[in-house]
Amino acid sequence: MNHQLLEKKTLVILLNRNTAKFYEFYKGRITEKASVCHEVPQEVKKAGWYGLRDGKIHRHIQDHLRAHFKKVNQIALKFLYKYKQIILASEPENISFFEPLMHNYLKKRLVAKIPVNLLNQPKLVIINKICAVLENTSRKAA
Fold this sequence. Notes:
Layout: E1 10-15, E2 19-26, E3 29-37, H1 52-78, E4 85-90, H2 92-98, H3 104-109, E5 110-115, H4 123-141
Parallel strand pairs: 1-4, 4-5
Antiparallel strand pairs: 1-2, 2-3
């Protein structure tokens, strides 16, 4: 891969249900800038009386997840002035939940959403996917 093409500072957000890591990709170098961890309960299946409890448990978990994603959004806004482009890498269900919560300034700089399984895929595979997207976007800009 030609690292000369990667001239723009890029913020990469690796996001899952409990954690988020922020990386800077610039001229072939990868630097971790921040990480955040929040306790989000796992989905459970507890059928209460006529299943009414299931809805309450699901909403409670969704509230925790929304709060986590909003905090990730706030941290990303703090980095906004330094980066021309943002890449979001996460499981598809997290991308679809997080994207509507993103601030408009962040959405304007979002150049790619990469569906990855952060828990099961090796880090090298994820880095290669990100680098391929960066190379592709820099070719389009040139």
